Amino acid sequence: MKSANSIISSYGTTVFEVMSRLAIEHQSINLGQGFPDDRGPEEVLQAGADALLTKPNQYPPMLGIPELRQTVAAHNKRFYNIDVDWRSQIVVGSGATELLTACFMALIEPGDEVVLIEPLYDSYLPMVRRAGGIPKLVRLTPPEWSLPRAEMTAAFSDKTKLIVLNSPMNPTGKVFSKDELTFISDLILKHDTFAICDEVYEHIVFDDQSHIPLMTLPGMADRVVRLGSAGKTFSLTGWKVGYLTGPSHLTSPIAKAHQFIVFTTPPNLQHGVAFGLTQDDVFFADLKRNMQAKRDRLADGLTKLGFSVLACQGTYFLSAAPPPDAKGPEPGDEPEDDEALCHRLTVEAGVTAIGLSAFYRDLDMHGFLRFCFCKQDGVLDEALTRFEQYYGGVS
Ligand code: PMP
Ligand code: GLN
């Protein structure tokens, strides 16, 4: 019998799904997969529910309902002073994941090189490869996660078609600085390439950091597509509504790919998101403030328990290495990789995280784990209590 596609077949089930299933099986507190555990904003839910009952539920326009494209354009103007034509420069899709795939399908020609920055979100590599792209990986490492500029320069060539840039960055919590973005934009101009900017965490940025879309830098408006997600901005990950903004010479082929992947996205959810994006500034400030308080709650608690906690400037993920413990492998045994460590912590401590190695093609991070902190305070506290019992009981 002939075999299925070799690239897709070479990947297993995503680590997020695997660890969520394991957490359910062991009644573990799931700080693995990134999703909030509350209902989401009541008024946005209501807008989606009202639209379900009062508006048409047939195929909406392929690019997205006009109301949502208009509000995405207004959101670009309001937060970043980006001017776009909502008719030709916005595409709505079924989550950022779908739109990323649409971008890769639309822009990559087999043999094109694509610069990707590790650690990376799990869909980038398989989908770039499936589109025929040749990945050129540039690796960031803890604790600083600083951009290795020489490696970045070396990764670009005249064969480079595009770079994928995720800022604020999952899983590192890094927010790229203006200086780093300028460096990247110079490479984009020098090599005549495009950028797909995954900015799904644009409103989850902490302390004195601010999110700067690469698109706002000189010369970039013509070369950058930036993506947002209602899943992150409205804490409704199950809605799977994403939106992208770019120059029409890029959004036009991307829309053609989108029409062959999902074609349209549920209209009532689009109405809910359109309503959400018109919320007052206080809505977006609250999101930031609440997430920052949760970051601090988990970071402080883990630090007190002896974890090495890394800085987190944005997203809802914290990286930390647990303290050494005597419940791991015996001296002389094979060292425990972070997948095995997460498995052990799920089963024995009752808390689930994701090992950072999962975000690299081929690197063992030796104990750095990603913890998702967009959970109710009581849930974070219970996770800390379980860790205290687990590590406290270790001799
Ligand atoms: N990019 C990154 C960096 C993410 O963390 C996520 C969240 N899963 C996505 C894209 C996908 O977003 P969506 O759920 O809208 O597909
Ligand atoms: N983005 C989420 C995370 O990083 C999960 C997405 C997914 O489950 N595919 O945890």
Helix content: 40-55%
Instruction: Say how many strands there are.
Output: 13
Ions, cofactors and other bound molecules: 4'-deoxy-4'-aminopyridoxal-5'-phosphate, glutamine
Number of helices: 14
Q: For the largest beta sheet, what order do the strands appear in spatially? A: 2-8-7-6-5-3-4
Uncertain residue segments: none
User: What name does CATH use for the topology of the largest domain?
Assistant: Aspartate Aminotransferase, domain 2
The Rg value, from CA coordinates, equals 21 Å
Query: If you average the pLDDT, what whole number results?
Result: 95
By secondary-structure content and strand pairing, the structural class works out as: alpha/beta
Q: Number of folding domains?
A: 2
Give an overview of the whole structure.
- With 395 residues, this protein is an alpha/beta fold.
- It has two domains: 6-39 and 282-391, Aspartate Aminotransferase, domain 1 (Alpha-Beta Complex), CATH 3.90.1150.10; 42-279, Type I PLP-dependent aspartate aminotransferase-like (Major domain) (Aspartate Aminotransferase, domain 2, 3-Layer(aba) Sandwich).
- Helices cover 42% and strands 14% of the residues.
- It is built from 14 helices and 13 strands.
- The strands form three sheets. A seven-stranded mixed beta sheet has the order 2-8-7-6-5-3-4, sandwiched between helices.
- Strand 3 (113-118), helix 6 (124-130) and strand 4 form a beta-alpha-beta unit.
- It is globular, with a radius of gyration of 21 Å.
- Bound molecules: 4'-deoxy-4'-aminopyridoxal-5'-phosphate and glutamine.
- 4'-deoxy-4'-aminopyridoxal-5'-phosphate binds at residues 34, 95-97, 121, 166, 170, 198, 200, 229, 231, 237, 240, 242.
